Amino acid sequence: MKSVGCKILLAFLLMSATLFAQETKEERIKKTIEQYAQSIDASADFTDLQTQLEGLYDNPIDLNTASREELSKLFLLTQIQINNLLAHIAENGKLISTLELQSIDGFELEDIERILPFISVDEQLEKPFWDEVKHGYNNIILRTVKLAETPAGYTNGKYPGSPFHLYGKYNFVASTRLSAGITADKDEGEEFFKGSQKQGFDFYSAHLFYTGKKLIRKIAVGDFQMQTGQGLVLWTGFAPSKTADATNVLRDASGLLPYKSAGEYRFMRGGAYTLALGKSVALTQFFSYKKIDANIFNQDTLTTKDDYFSSIYQSGYHRTTAELATKHQLNEFLTGGDLSYTKGMFKVGVSAMYGSYGIPFQPAKDSGVKSYRFSGKNFYNVGVNYRYLFRNIYFFGETAAGVLGSYATINGALISLHPTLQASIINRNYSAGYFAPYSNGFSEATDNTNEKGTYIGMQWKPKPQFIFNGYFDAYSFPWLKYLVSSPGTIGKDALIDFLYIPNKKFSLNLRFKREEKEHNISSSYNNTEVQLQTNLRQSMRAEIHFKPSPEWTLQSRVESVFYSEKTTATVGHGFLGYQGVAWQPMKKRYSITARYYLFDINDYNARIYAYEDDMPFVFSIPSFSGQGMKYYAVVSYKINRKIKLYAKATRTEYLNQNTIGSGNDLINAPHKTEFKLQMNIGF
User: Fold this and answer.
1) 237 exposed, middle or buried (CB, 10 Å; 0-12, 13-18, 19+)?
2) For the segment 305-341, what is each residue's pLDDT rounded down to a tens digit?
3) Average pLDDT of the segment spanning 555-580
4) For residues 374 and 362, is the Cβ–Cβ distance under 8 A?
5) Which helix (H) or strand (E) holds 155?
6) Which candidate, 318, 343, 338, places its Cα nearest to that of 159?
7) CB-side exposure of 391: number of CA atoms within 13 Å?
């Protein structure tokens, strides 16, 4: 770069960075998570993402020494950007400043601003381990949640516990080297230090996690997560599939990670380690044993048949007699590992997992489904994954095998067609019998089985302030599945998304999405011949963010959904609009965020999801159906440097119904009111 141009660029970026630095840690992380959440039309848990971003904020990644795996942890860079960054450093030497990033292809100003809090180029001498432990950081979170209304389960005696949801978490972090903590959670309706829960909380989780830089790279004791390849063998934790960021589809596995969430199923419990066998080879092995919830069927003692289970119960609720009957009924043993070789822009890995249940698994009594689904006590998965950069094309994929000759394969590419134009393509083929209970690869369905498809995505940035995203996904289900009692059904998804960001104060997002799938006709269930129909769902969204001053932020959205069933002539319409406002007065200890919704949705199939503000480590993407209004307010108050309080009040009022919910969760009123209170203590 010429010196004059460099000085102008550095001055401009320095000014931008100064403005950007006005955001607090909490605001920056919240904003980053919201960018993901706004593009996902379903409920999701972003605890893992927030945990990693907080760690990166406190201990930024050094771009000059970071590996591809470490850069991928940002969740904010595409693989093409990571490739260009690594190639730039290899060719030109270490970065002098983070401001140099704009000289690298694919890094626009908004990209740099987004990652600045999580990166550095300051090479610091590694402190002795015990010095880092001595200066470690402690964090405590205490939270309670309660409904103002009383669900039927408390009046009919089905819920013996208190209506309070209680949550506690302690975590100790020493730089990037050590993390230790414990999480405890009690759901509403569960007993507490009495009855069925004499041990107090219904769920406890603890972890001890060490990260090194020599032979021992990672050690995990207690609860942990594991990610390999493209997720076909094993992937726990955050992993979105189809989002409005159409080219961000590659899974970049982080290997071992500590588990800090309150979910009661998708994690490992035991021990694991990662060793660096030279500069290019890494070996990870893990062992896990835990009791999980399952529906157990006891055979007659007069027969020779063994007991079996038909499904794993994942909700985590243990309130009623039926729910308690599933608790910790099934022993699960898992072991496996991952061996990878990395050389420059090439990586190949082999991952494997063996699992064993205490009693056999038998799928539900559906003859069509049961004919191809796994049954038994023992299973395994073995996969080979790869990544390779060839010029401007980044190839990736994984092929895995399971019991009874089942298989799953996914192959794709990220293509840089032009500095302003990126493309992605993924082809997947998951056999009907593939069984991998901890997989989480790219797919339309919730598991990686019985699916074929091809996805094409494009992202175009003709100007820094204009971003166009779009994708088309065509898929089929070769065999039977839920609500589809005929083989060979097909589906198609398409999305077009436009984002306009002319300055730091304003952004406009326009989105159109179309989904077309085949399902059973409900009236055909009792017929000998199953009849199918094509269901069409189309949605349109317009959203505006406006920041009239440093203290105020306004957010507005309108969204409309049209749903139709061609054969039965069923038609559903949905409309949702909201206005949000956030007030964060500078140099004050408090902030307030509020939002008001109006919705009119006459069919559950036309439901609309909307991400809403909440407290740290609480994520809410509720769905709306029916007719009514909703409003909430979140208030935060910083007592001192160590203690911060949060409170949230939410109320939903329905105009077309007199009750909410059903069964034990039935509220005999047309409204639902929820209160949350949380305290964060850091020292």
Assistant:
1) buried
2) 678 888 899 889 999 999 999 999 999 999 999 999 9
3) 90
4) no
5) helix 152-155
6) 318
7) 4
